[in-house]
Design goal:
The chain folds into 2 domains: 112 residues, 2-Layer Sandwich (D-amino Acid Aminotransferase, Chain A, domain 1); 150 residues, D-amino Acid Aminotransferase, Chain A, domain 2 (Alpha-Beta Barrel), CATH 3.20.10. The strands form 2 sheets. Strands 7, 8, 9, 10, 11, 12, 13, 14, 15 and 16 form a 10-stranded mixed sheet that branches. By secondary structure, the protein is of the alpha+beta class.
């Protein structure tokens, strides 16, 4: 974590940033966030991330104290003060302090600056594991701080050496707790379109890969996964990352195929 952050209306040192226990984000989990990469001083896909953050705030009926221009300028100031031209930024917006733990008033807004840490290359070479669970996030179009389900499966994730939790409901596979999900079958890419958080990386990946592969935006069913040629996730920190195992089932032959390497090569160099 870099030293300078932002809290409500001013820059502050991270070590001095305190959020009172009465905040409804803590008491009731009423908060949204977003997270994105800054590379060489520029926000990657910045307009898309800002669109999503302000849309989440509007849907959650929360007021962002900074407009887009002010937010961009504040992020740039934080990056400059922390001398962190390549790093990550987290925006956190809560319902604010509440006297009765239910009603709320003025939002609390925090901007944090995280150090950049590249992903382990072996994850792209060998693929990752996921575990699955029956679950549907409420208000999936809003990027909330509610990760209760995936956090509660911490022990099972460790048991399976799983990177994330894959959600499904009534046989339809939606997303993981922190990424969008795809399968590949017969040279075609499939991804569920409804009841998911439409990731910024997902959006830009689809725009790029659409020139190389046929993309089918329809429901992905659990049974579709087991005979898929490949599976992968997309996220801000991981880009395109291959999945080789879900629970006790191997995807494809359990190895990262040449086709999967080609899909990664189409997009990951852009990050």
């Amino acid at each position: 974590m870099h030293g300078t952050a932002f809290f409500n209306d001013s820059l502050i040192e991270y070590k001095d940033l305190n959020l009172h226990i009465s905040d409804i984000g803590i008491q009731r989990g009423y908060a949204i966030f977003d997270y994105f990469k800054v590379k060489d001083g520029k926000i990657r896909f910045g307009e898309d991330y800002f669109d999503r953050f302000y849309n989440s705030a509007e849907l959650a009926d929360l007021d962002v104290p900074l407009n887009r221009e002010e937010l961009s300028a504040t992020i740039n100031e934080i990056i400059e003060k922390n001398d962190s031209p390549t790093s990550y930024i987290k925006l956190l917006l809560t319902g604010g302090y509440s006297e009765n733990g239910f009603d709320y008033g003025k939002s609390n807004f925090v901007i944090l600056n995280y150090e950049y840490a590249p992903q382990d290359p072996s994850l792209y070479e060998n693929g990752i594991n996921l575990i699955s669970t029956f679950y549907q996030r409420s208000s999936p179009e809003i990027k909330t701080t509610n990760y209760f389900m995936s956090a509660s499966l911490h022990k099972k994730r460790k048991q399976y050496e799983a990177t994330d939790v894959l959600y499904h409901l009534d046989g339809i596979v939606t997303e993981t707790s922190r990424a969008n999900f795809f399968i590949v079958r017969d040279e075609e890419i499939f991804t569920t379109e409804d009841d998911i958080l439409h990731g910024v990386t997902r959006k830009n990946f689809l725009e790029k890969v659409d020139k190389h592969y046929m993309v089918n935006r329809q429901n992905v069913w659990l049974e579709d996964i087991w005979d898929a040629d490949a599976a992968f996730i997309t996220s801000t920190t991981k880009g395109v990352m291959p999945v080789v195992r879900i629970d006790d089932s191997i995807i494809g032959n359990g190895k990262v195929s040449e086709q999967m390497k080609d899909i990664m090569d189409i997009f990951n160099p852009l990050l």
